[in-house]
Design brief:
This protein has 147 residues and is mainly alpha-helical. Helix content is 59%, strand content 4%. Helix 1 runs antiparallel to helix 2 and helix 2 runs antiparallel to helix 3.
């Protein structure tokens, strides 16, 4: 699972279909092994490897990644969407950044200014990601938004 998740973090918003299929297979392999370990320990009367709802969510993520890779191959396209692109995990420093931004604005307009600065920061990150060299665009010419 560590390999699968690490791979997702090293990819961009889109993943090449062959890589997506490989990651999805690793993900499912983890779930199969986890299920096997849970079954074995349960039969021995031990309380290990709980089947919490997050395991079910992981299964959906793996299947979606595999389905998108298969659909990309059928359609002759190259990309599958990275499941992390739609995840709702909170970054460890999420609290710190808006907090620092809020200390640098006028208190009378703090909410509007923090939102504006956050949007500016997001735009700067997206522009930097646009120059990413991991091959996020296919060989076809892709229209660029002027800076």
């Amino acid at each position: 699972m560590n390999t699968a998740i690490s791979s997702l973090y090293h990819e961009g918003w889109f993943i090449r279909r062959d890589r997506a299929a490989k990651i999805g297979q690793l993900w499912l392999l983890f779930l199969q092994k986890y299920s096997r370990a849970a079954t074995l320990t349960y039969r021995r009367g031990l309380s290990r490897f709980p089947m919490v709802p997050k395991i079910h969510m992981l299964h959906h993520g793996a299947l979606r990644l595999l389905r998108e890779a298969e659909a990309a191959e059928r359609n002759g396209t190259m990309w599958a969407c990275n499941p992390l692109a739609e995840s709702v995990q909170m970054q460890e420093d999420f609290i710190g950044r808006p907090s620092r931004m809020s200390r640098r604005v006028n208190p009378k307009q703090i909410h509007a200014r923090v939102c504006q600065r956050s949007l500016i920061s997001t735009l700067q990150s997206l522009k930097a990601a646009d120059k990413d060299q991991r091959g996020l665009f296919s060989q076809r010419v892709v229209a660029r938004v002027p800076e």
